[in-house]
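Hi R.,

Quick one: here's the GA module sequence you asked about.
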Amino acid sequence: AKHVREAAANTNLPADVAKKVKAAHNTVDALKNLKPEQKAAAHRKLNEVARTDAKAIDTVVAQAKELNANQAPGNNERAKQKIETAQKAHAQRIANAQAEVNRLKNVSKNTKAEYNEKISRAATDEIPALVKEVKALDAAKQPAIAKKEIAAAQKAHAEQIKESQALVNKLENLSKEAKDEYNSRIAKAATNEVEAI
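And here's the predicted structure, written out as C-alpha cells:
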C-alpha cells in the first residue's frame, strides 16, 4: 500500500517535490500515535497538496505531528494532572467559602447548613454569588441584633443607675439635698462614670 501511495504521489511531479512527498509519507508512517484512518487521511492530503501546492507538504506533516503529539500517552497524564489540579482548587474554594459562611454571626445554624450544602454542590464560578447572598442575609439581620444589644445595654445601665441611687439613699450621713444631687448626677452619668460617682 505504501508503494501505491508513493507511486501515485510521484506521478508527473518534479523530482524535488516527489522526493519531499516520499519523505513526508515516511514521516507520517512513523507516527506511532496516529490511528490508521488518520494516517490514511494524511497520506491522501499529502498526495493532493503535492499536485496543487507543494509548499503545503510541510503544513500537512506538521498537522499530523501535532495530532500525534496530542494523542501521546503522556498527554493523557498531563490532562489527568490538570483535572486533579482543578478539582483540588475547586475543593479549596468550597472549603474557604464554607469557612466564610460559618464565621457569620447573624444567620442561624440552619441557614449556614443550607448555604454550605449549596456551596458544596455549586460550580466553581457559582460559589462567590452564594457567599454574597448569605452575607447579605447576615447583614440584613445585623440591625435587629444591634437593637437587641442596645436595649440590653440600656436596661443594664438603668439597673446600674437604680442600684447606685439605692446605695446613695442608704447613706445616713448625707443630707437629703446631697443625696438628691448625687442621684441627679448618677442619672445623667454614662455607664462607666456611675461607679466613679
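The chain has nine helices and no strands.

Cheers,
M.
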